[in-house]
């Protein structure tokens, strides 16, 4: 029986671990927190997930919240400012629903399931000395967390990085009391050009259905006021104030919101980063990165957990296909390139939302306001960002698409 060790017990690590257990592997997963500590701690992310990623959970029998979690049925995109209101406005259902389950609910449940299926769950910190020991005693070590010195093992891949600093100050808020939409539940994306974005969608938390609000402020801009926030009440008050000031078309839905709990808030600044896949230890042994440690996106388009789930599925398939072969450096590099073949498109999609859109993209978004077919294509890109690869970033290809669309109309 081959022995696999996974450092990190989040979406990528636990999903892969459970999949490997089902295939007959001996699996150890290491977490720096117990399930109880995760459940009682601060929210970890916004984790909107879509059908392709969720299908991998369903295949493993760990999609425990399909009947409880409110669906994300579509998207609604609006752009404008406080003076003119929303000047761009389109919506569309997705081909399949998404969902968002608070990781404080999800990860403790998955940790229990990992152990129920025979996995060895270890609670503790992993330093370089411990990682050396693990690499010496395991057939393969995967690192699915970038905390502490572990993240430094994986070199920034400058050739694949678009940015070298945070593009947004990010404030996350879990709330009850949102006024429901009158058509379908949606990933709501509101853009105030040059100021920032308001993204929100339905979710499930400890206390039942809720909504997650993500305010993305351009650093140094008029919404970047978060450093002065000291308490959960301050966080909620500033959330409501910024929505009223910069997204007034949305403000009525937020009039009576309240925090799900005092830990239902998070603030930070993320530098979108791509790292090289292999960490080389002082001994010369190698470990393989996965998930956010390899491709870390701004949460604007909600691709992080989707990348983790799809990557875990890809890794599972590759490990099983390797049989008794060595998990050597060429194999690691080939697997990581296979992951990048997908993840590069989620990164490009997200990064494109962090900069002023070029004219051909503005033309496309404007056309979506009148063309339901194009709006639907854009909605489904959140499920599969690679679907944009042949036309969204190419002005000529975009022009041909718009021309064909106009001819059909």
Please supply descriptive tags for the structure shown above.
8-stranded mixed β-sheet, 409 residues, alpha/beta, single chain, D-Amino Acid Oxidase, Chain A, domain 2, FAD/NAD(P)-binding domain
Task: Tell me what you see in this structure.
It is a single chain. Helix content is 36%, strand content 23%. It is globular. The longest helix is centred in the last third of the chain and has 24 residues, at 329-352. The protein is α/β, with parallel strands linked by helices. Helix 1 runs parallel beside helix 4 (103-116). Strand 3 and strand 4 (85-98) form a beta hairpin. The chain is built from twelve helices and 16 strands. It folds into three domains: 3-63 and 103-162 and 272-352, FAD/NAD(P)-binding domain (3-Layer(bba) Sandwich), CATH 3.50.50.60; 72-100 and 165-269, D-Amino Acid Oxidase, Chain A, domain 2 (2-Layer Sandwich), CATH 3.30.9; 359-408, no CATH class. It has helices spanning 11-22, 35-39, 51-60, 103-116, 128-137, 149-152, 232-246, 304-322, 329-352, 359-368, 372-380, 395-408, and strands at residues 3-7, 26-31, 72-81, 85-98, 120-123, 140-143, 169-176, 186-192, 196-205, 208-217, 258-259, 265-269, 273-274, 278-280, 286-289, 295-296. The model has no long low-confidence stretch (mean pLDDT 95).
């Amino acid at each position: 029986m081959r022995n696999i060790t996974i450092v990190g017990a989040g979406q990528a690590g636990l999903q892969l671990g459970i999949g490997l257990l089902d295939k007959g592997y001996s699996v150890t997963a290491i977490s720096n927190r117990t399930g109880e500590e995760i459940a009682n701690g601060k929210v970890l992310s916004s984790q909107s997930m879509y059908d392709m990623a969720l299908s991998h959970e369903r295949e493993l029998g760990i999609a425990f919240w399909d009947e409880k979690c409110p669906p994300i049925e579509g998207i609604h995109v609006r752009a404008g400012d406080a003076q003119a209101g929303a000047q761009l406005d389109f919506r569309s259902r997705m081909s399949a629903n998404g969902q968002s389950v608070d990781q404080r609910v999800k990860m403790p449940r998955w940790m229990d399931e990992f152990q129920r299926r025979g996995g060895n769950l270890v609670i503790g910190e992993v330093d370089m000395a411990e990682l050396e020991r693990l690499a010496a005693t395991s057939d393969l070590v995967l690192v699915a967390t970038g905390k502490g010195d572990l993240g430094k093992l994986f070199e920034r891949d400058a050739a694949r990085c678009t940015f070298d600093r945070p593009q947004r100050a990010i404030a996350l808020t879990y709330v009850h009391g949102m006024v429901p939409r009158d058509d379908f539940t949606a990933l709501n994306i509101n853009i105030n050009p040059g100021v920032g974005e308001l993204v929100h969608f339905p979710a499930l938390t400890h206390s039942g259905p809720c909504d997650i609000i993500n305010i993305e402020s351009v650093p140094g801009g008029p919404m970047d006021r978060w450093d002065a926030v000291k308490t959960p009440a301050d966080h909620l008050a500033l959330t409501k104030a910024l929505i009223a000031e910069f997204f007034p078309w949305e403000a009525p839905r937020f009039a009576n919101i309240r925090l799900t709990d005092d830990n239902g808030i998070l603030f930070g600044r993320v530098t979108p980063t791509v790292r090289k896949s292999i960490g080389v230890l002082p001994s010369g042994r190698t470990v393989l990165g996965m998930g956010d440690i390899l491709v870390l996106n701004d949460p604007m388009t909600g691709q992080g957990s989707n990348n983790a789930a799809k990557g875990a599925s890809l890794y599972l398939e590759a490990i099983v296909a390797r049989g008794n072969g060595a998990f050597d450096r060429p194999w690691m590099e080939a697997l990581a390139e296979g992951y990048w073949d997908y993840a590069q498109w989620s990164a490009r999609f997200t990064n494109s939302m962090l900069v002023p859109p070029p004219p051909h993209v503005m033309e496309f978004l404007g056309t979506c306001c009148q063309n339901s077919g194009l709006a639907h294509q854009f909605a489904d890109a959140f499920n599969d960002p690679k679907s944009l690869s042949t036309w969204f970033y190419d002005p000529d290809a975009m022009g041909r698409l718009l021309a064909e669309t106009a001819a059909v109309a």
